[in-house]
């Protein structure tokens, strides 16, 4: 009987290629939900986040697959999600065989792929971005932005600084790291097979999401070759089927790669009873960075086109809807910086015992009504990389460590809220708020200030730590197969 039941099981493998780690999740779809069968996380150990070694990411990928080898035999569908905006180039005909060699040997050189230029890369100066944006015409989507670390901007910079880059390494295609991974899993060996979903295409920069096509005039002005760019597919479409390699079974359906953030929204707002999304929901996530997202209709998008702030982006979503995202580069990374700074001060004062984040939060809660204010943008923002942070309104009685921690957390919330366009702010802050991310779940100060910004504080629903795995991007990736009937790539 057990053998028969296993034959009937159809497991889904979700993969999240993050900035610092790879997450794997195997789920078994059930009526009204999913059962988590296996979960594994593997860190890269990368020191640089602006540019990352694809070889190291692939080695980590192979290690993760080996850790869940027993569960892979029953996998029939795979969805890869991960860090958005970044770009990697590769030689399509050599991709699979080179990856097999890396899988067998664990090392080598002369790989047919470039490094990954990530969303954190800062090679594009504000002057360079202004030059790129000057080529935008009326066909450029006003809701699709260009910033340093975005695929089109990175491609334009590489072309300008190294015109023979593509020919020198025989690269004939490109995509996000998720697109490279789906091409690898499917054994794609021609540039025409490389595909990118509409959400990730929009995250690269100016893109005609209505017509699902790249802006030819804009690309020509930037001297980006059209034939190298991936084919744009609808999110949820099938990119192909797996080849038998790396311990994976043959013929499992592989969906077009997706971004981690939209998959997080899927996980938070998914309604299993209708295989659709809960109505009137805003999601707030504080992890390394911070995001507010809400699902919007075409009517709402049209009404706000003249009211788009620099930090707010709009991307296509499921069921002919859109997702509006206020995305800040300032989040848990700023709090981690402050913790390190406080401990550096303690060392300067010859104090041996380091302070912990929980102690900082407790100090901040004791000063949550502080008059000290903080602009937390020490790492800049995508729309203004030159932004700096600051403390202000300093008085003799408000500049303790607790005051600084409280002001920093309040500043993080205020900074994120300001990114929401005025026309949507009341809606975003008045409907049900689902809070996710380690930064929010484990930081009472952030929750306090977030509740203070809401029209109805009781609407805030923080994900329980025991259920945290079900509100992650990788879990959302496993749900994508249940949202719509996927369209085949052939």
From TrEMBL:
The keyword Transferase applies. Residues 12-264 form the Carbohydrate kinase FGGY N-terminal domain. One of its GO terms (molecular function) is sedoheptulokinase activity. Keywords: Kinase, Transferase. It holds the Pfam family FGGY_N. One of its GO terms (cellular component) is cytosol. GO terms for biological process: glycerol metabolic process. The keyword Hydrolase does not apply. It comes from the Eukaryota. Belongs to the FGGY kinase family. This is Sedoheptulokinase putative. It comes from Albugo laibachii Nc14.
């Amino acid at each position: 009987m057990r053998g028969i039941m296993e034959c009937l099981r159809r497991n889904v493998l979700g993969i999240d290629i993050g900035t610092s780690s790879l997450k794997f999740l195997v789920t078994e779809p059930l009526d009204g939900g999913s059962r988590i069968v296996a979960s594994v996380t593997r860190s890269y150990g990368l020191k640089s986040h602006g540019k990352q070694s694809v070889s190291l990411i692939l080695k980590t990928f192979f290690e993760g697959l080996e850790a869940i080898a027993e569960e892979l035999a029953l996998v029939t569908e795979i969805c890869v999600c991960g860090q958005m905006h970044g770009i990697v180039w590769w030689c399509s005909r050599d991709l699979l065989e080179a990856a097999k060699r890396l899988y067998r040997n664990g090392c080598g050189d002369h790989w047919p792929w470039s490094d990954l230029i990530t969303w954190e890369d800062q090679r594009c100066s504000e002057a360079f971005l202004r030059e790129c944006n000057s080529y935008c015409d009326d066909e450029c989507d006003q809701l699709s932005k260009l910033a340093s670390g975005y695929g089109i901007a990175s491609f334009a910079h590489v072309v300008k600084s190294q015109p023979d880059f593509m020919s020198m390494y025989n690269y004939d295609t490109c995509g996000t790291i998720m697109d490279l991974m789906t091409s690898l899993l499917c054994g794609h060996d021609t540039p025409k097979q490389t595909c990118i979903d509409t959400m990730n295409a929009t995250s690269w920069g100016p893109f005609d999401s209505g017509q699902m096509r790249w802006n030819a005039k804009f690309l020509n002005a930037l001297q980006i070759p059209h034939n190298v760019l991936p084919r744009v597919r609808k999110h949820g479409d099938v990119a192909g089927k797996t080849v038998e390699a790396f311990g994976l079974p043959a013929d499992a359906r592989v969906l077009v790669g997706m971004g981690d953030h939209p998959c997080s929204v899927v996980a938070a707002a998914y309604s299993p009873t209708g295989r659709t999304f809960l109505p009137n929901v805003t999601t707030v996530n504080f992890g390394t960075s911070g995001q507010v997202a809400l699902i919007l209709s075409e009517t709402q998008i049209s009404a706000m086109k003249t009211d788009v702030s620099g930090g707010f982006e709009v991307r296509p979503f499921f069921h002919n809807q859109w997702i509006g995202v206020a995305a800040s580069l300032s989040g848990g990374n700023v709090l981690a910086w402050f913790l390190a700074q406080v401990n550096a001060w303690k060392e300067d004062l010859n104090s041996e015992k380091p302070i912990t984040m929980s102690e900082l939060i407790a100090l901040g809660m004791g000063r949550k009504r502080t008059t000290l204010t903080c602009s937390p943008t020490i790492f800049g923002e995508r729309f203004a990389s030159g932004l700096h942070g600051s403390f202000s309104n300093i008085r003799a009685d408000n500049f303790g460590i607790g005051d600084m921690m409280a002001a920093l957390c309040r500043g993080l919330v205020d900074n994120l809220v300001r990114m929401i366009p005025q026309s949507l702010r009341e809606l975003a802050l008045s409907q049900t708020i689902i809070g996710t991310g380690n930064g929010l779940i484990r930081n009472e100060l952030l929750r306090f200030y977030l509740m203070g910004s809401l029209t109805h504080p009781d609407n805030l629903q923080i994900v329980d730590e025991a259920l945290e795995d079900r509100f992650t991007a990788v879990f959302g990736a496993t749900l994508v197969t249940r949202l719509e009937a996927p369209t085949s790539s052939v």
